[in-house]
UniProtKB/TrEMBL annotation:
Keywords: Membrane, Transmembrane, Transmembrane helix. This is Uncharacterized protein. The lineage of its organism: Bacteria, Pseudomonadati, Bacteroidota, Flavobacteriia, Flavobacteriales. The chain crosses the membrane at residues 47-67. It comes from Sediminicola luteus.
Amino acid sequence: MKNKSILVVLTLLAVFLPQLMEAQCAMCRAVLESEADTSAAEGINNGIVYLMAVPYILVAGLFYFIYRKMRT
């Protein structure tokens, strides 16, 4: 039970605090660091985190659905 609660807390932190994550490829980082405007870099970074998170959430939902069906 304790492991589940830790996993839930970590998942919620990852979902609601994406600014703590640095998810950029090397080429995107190099191009965006050379510009003076940081709002574009933040937008690209947020987009990458969003695109990365959606498949994981969908797969987790699918496995949860399968788990519930197999359990009953």
